Prior knowledge:
- This protein is α/β, with parallel strands linked by helices and 207 residues long.
- It has a single domain (4-199), classed as 2,3-Dihydroxybiphenyl 1,2-Dioxygenase, domain 1.
- 21% of the residues lie in helices and 40% in strands.
- The protein has an eight-stranded mixed beta sheet with strand order 5-6-7-4-8-11-10-9.
- The model is unreliable at 203-207 (pLDDT under 50).
Amino acid sequence: MTSIDTITLEVADPAAAERFYAAAFGLGDRLRLRASQEPSTGFRGFTLSLVASQPADVRALVDAAVAAGATTLKPVAKSMWGWGGVVRAPDGTIWKVATPAKKDTGPATRRVDSVVLLLGVADVAASKRFYTEHGFTVGKSFGRMYVEFAGAGAVKLALYRRKALAKDAGVSPEGDGAHRIAIGGAGGPFTDPDGFAWETAPMAAMS
């Protein structure tokens, strides 16, 4: 079964980004950084989601991100699915922090239970077919709207229609240029139908 081992964000200032992510989320070697000046405007076509166990953790993680310099796109709020909020990091990456839990069961810990990479794609069915042909196993599938793959890697992979993903993040779907992200996994190297690049060689980890 193919899986994601690392996510590498391409940022203009790796030192500043490292400080931000250490203060905001503390993801350790699940998140890596490298310098890039590739132009990118508007929505980059993906979001990263941090799944926590309770609303207090969601609030704590979002508060820490904002205190470290993130911009709020959607404040933490309750929905039919649980609790969640969306922020944009100083490097431009959009992060959603959420939990399916409706109530707190203890004090906030800022623990992240799982990380999910959501790719905004033009054709969910075509991208689903591409990834299954590259060794991924479908865990959940909702027609041409959403697909989530099973996997034991450090990061889960899901596909969402680009416009729907942008709406969920609270931004316009328009954007062009580089995605500014590289995905590390045993199945690479390859580039998917929407231009997301997969690599096999691991990048240097955040210290």
